[in-house]
Design a protein that fits this description.
The chain is an alpha/beta fold and 248 residues long. The protein has a single domain, classed as 3-Layer(aba) Sandwich (Rossmann fold). Helices cover 42% and strands 22% of the residues. Strands 3-2-1-4-5-7-6 form a seven-stranded mixed sheet, with helices on both faces. Strand 1, helix 3 and strand 2 form a beta-alpha-beta unit. Helix 1 crosses helix 9. The structure holds S-adenosylmethionine. S-adenosylmethionine binds next to helix 3 and strand 2.
């Protein structure tokens, strides 16, 4: 099994692929200036579309284009969109968010919950900015250092698992340097973390008997992540950012 196959085997049945919940998505959406004027939304790396459907429900006049690379998720989403009666406003694309054609200035709002790290924050902010109309926004979440003085154990773990993890201050500065105004940033709640980690921990337990050594290694890493996140909950956690395209 390739690493991608292992990841989709573990994460495939889970309701979401990153910390987050409806409350945090809506809190970030509320921070978007003139949100009622948003017509065109681009939701990137959507998994099975948790955020896509929340955004489509909240922005009743908007068209949401969701991009996801894993074809089985795209197929499931198409079914949900029809059931939810939003198929006319939710356009689902199976593709690579790092390599899509988007007309300059055509997007009001880019959403990337738990997925911006796949492109890299600095690179994503540079690539996505021309897609936004003047005053358009990017909302994204990522794992972020919450302290300048983390415990040694958490530092060691994240140095291997996510060496590029930045502080909130550094990401806000990155946004400003890339031509954005920081509208909001906030730490996501314990509930938003639990909504991801509790089902994930149950999935790890379910697969415990799996004989594939590579799968076992990945399961051990995930279990370790869950422990580190819980034990050092003040050191680092998921954080939301809302940035508005600034004009120079
Ligand atoms: C960490 S999950 C987050 C999913 C979702 N945003 C959420 O919060 O539940 C990342 C998702 O991005 C997808 N993905 C990975 N690389 C991608 C790419 N290059 N283009 C589009 N989607 C990608 C994965 O298949 C996965 O569903």
């Amino acid at each position: 099994m390739s690493m991608a196959d292992i990841i989709y085997e573990i994460f495939g049945p889970l309701p979401q692929g990153a910390p987050g919940n409806e409350a945090s998505t809506l809190r970030a959406l509320d921070a978007v200036p003139d949100r009622d004027l948003v017509c065109n939304v681009l939701d990137l790396g959507v998994g099975r579309g948790r955020t896509t459907f929340t955004l489509a429900r909240a922005l009743r006049d908007a068209r949401v284009t969701a991009v996801e690379i894993h074809a089985p998720f795209v197929k499931q989403m198409a079914g949900y969109a029809s059931e939810a009666g939003v198929a006319n406003r939710v356009h689902i694309v199976c593709g690579d968010m790092g390599n899509i054609e988007v007309a300059e200035g055509s997007v009001d709002l880019i959403w990337a919950e738990g997925s911006i790290y796949l492109v890299g924050i600095e690179r994503a902010l540079a690539i996505w900015r021309p897609w936004l109309r003047p005053g358009g926004c990017i909302a994204f979440s990522d794992f972020v250092w919450w302290t300048d003085d983390p415990s040694e154990e958490a530092s060691e773990f994240w140095a291997t698992e996510y060496p590029d993890m930045a502080t909130e201050v550094a990401i806000r500065a990155m946004g400003e340097a890339a031509g954005y105004r920081v509208v909001s940033s906030f730490h996501m709640s314990k509930e938003a973390h639990d909504d991801y980690y509790i089902p994930l921990e149950e999935r790890v337990a379910e697969l415990a008997g799996c004989v594939d050594a590579d799968v076992q290694q990945v399961l051990e890493n995930i279990q370790r992540e869950i422990e580190v996140v819980r034990r050092f909950a003040d050191d680092a956690g998921y954080t939301f950012f809302v940035l508005q395209r600034a004009e120079s």
